[in-house]
Structure formats: structure tokens, C-alpha cells
Amino acid sequence: MNEEKKEKRGGRREGAGRPKGDNKLYAFRADKDVAEFIDAHDNKTEFIRDCILQARKTSVEETKIDKLGEVIPANRVKPVNVPFFDVKIVAGFPIPLNNDEMAQDIELLKMLCPNTDSSYLIRVQGNSMIEAGVHDGDILIVDKSNRQPTEKQIAVCELNGEYTVKRVKEIAGKKWLVPANPEYPNIKLNENDSFSVWGVVTYIISKPKY
After folding, report:
1. Is residue 59 annotated as a catalytic residue, yes or no?
2. Rounded to whole angstroms, how far apart are CA atoms 14 and 113?
3. For residue 85, what are the β-bridge partners?
4. What is the pLDDT of residues 12-41, one digit of tens each?
């Protein structure tokens, strides 16, 4: 009898312990600044989870927009200091620009991207905006922090999972995506469309046309 009881003792009882689930435990080291930033949040687990989900969303978004052209986050571009001559150039008599005292060093990236953390460089494909000065192969600097473009601004838009560069205009009470090339049609936005503005073009970098 005692032997039977001993055999039943020990081991893992069926149903004992925490139920198995899809959760996994991770541990990582953080430097002082990161640790202080995480500790400033009451629910650290939820905060870290939200950061990871946002990073994953951004990664998926960048993969989709790659179809529009090559995309480079501005904060991955190395700083470049170049001489800047703050003078007016006219198409008349030449003005000497060989005096270094007239020049001041500027950081080109900061001048073109005031909001570096929210700006992207896109090498655009296509000619639907040529009359707005955007040609195939040009580089657009796009500010994602601005998602409310005026009708004159050029916007990068997502329509039903596809990205395009257009102006957003209201015509006869309806919203349209309007190209700057008569060979391309206007695109009417319908109620069932999935539409959002990804960002607004702040600068266009073009090569000289010969």
C-alpha cells in the first residue's frame, strides 16, 4: 500500500503550473539613457511592445513604398557641410564667388530636412508630375510629419495599398488625386477606397537638363 502511494508521489501533476500560451519571456540590457527612458513609463511592457509594433509597421510601410522608388530615411544620411554664398544670382553680369570670406559653412541635410527624423529621400520613378518639376530619377525629400497638404503641395499618397505622387484637390465636392502631366488621368477617391497621405514633398533634387 505504501509502495503504491510512493509511486503516485512526485512528478508533475496533470494541469499543474501556468497554462502554456503564445507568450515568450525576453531579457535584454539597455544603456543608461535608454534605461531611464523606459523607466519613465508606468507600464514598461506595454511601452516596449508599442515601440516594437510601430517599428514593424514602419518596416512594412517602407517595403510597400519601395515600389514608388528607392527610399532612404533622412536620418541615415551622413551630414555634409558645404560653403554657402548668401547672394542673389541673376542671369546678367557675372558675380565673383571666389572670395571665401563671403561663404559660410552650412549643413546641407539640416537645410533641406528641418525634421530629419520624419523625412525620407525618394528617388522617384515615372513622369506623372513633370509639369510640377518632378522628373523620372529625381530625388524627393518628403516630410512624414505633414499629412495635410494644400492643393498646391505635392504629396506622397497611399491608395488601396499602392503609393503614388500627386496633388490632392477637391473638385465639385469630391477629392481627387491630380497629376501634373496631361497624359495621366485624374483619380477620383471613392468612399470605399483606402486612402491616406504618407507625407508632403519639401524639396526636389534634380540634375540639370541638357
Report:
1. no
2. 61
3. 103
4. 555 555 555 566 777 777 787 778 878 887
196 catalytic? Reply is no
Residue the block writes with cell 544620411: 77
* pTM: predicted TM-score of the whole model, two decimal places: 0.59
SS (H, E, C) the chain: CHHHHHHHCCCCCCCCCCCCCCCCCCCCCCCHHHHHHHHCCCCHHHHHHHHHHHHHHHHHHHHHHCCCEEEEEHHHCCCCEEEEECCCCCCCCCCCCCCHHHEEEEEHHHHHCCCHHHEEEEEECCCCCHHHCCCCCCEEEEECCCCCCCCCCCEEEEECCEEEEEEEEEECCEEEEECCCCCCCCEECCCCCCEEEEEEEEEEECCCCC
- Listed in sequence order, the residues at least 6 apart from 63 whose beta carbon sits closer than 8 Å to its beta carbon are none
Q: Is 161 left (phi over 0), alpha (psi -120 to 50) or beta?
A: left
How sure is the predictor about 115, in pLDDT bands with cuts at 50, 70 and 90? confident
pLDDT tens across 33-70, in order?
778 878 887 887 777 777 776 665 555 565 566 666 67
- Indicate which residue of 128, 145, 174, 206 is catalytic: 128
Residue 77 has pLDDT above 90, yes or no: no
Kindly name the residue from 119, 166, 175, 194 that is annotated as catalytic. Answer: 166
Rounded-to-integer distance, Cα 199 and Cα 120, Å: 9
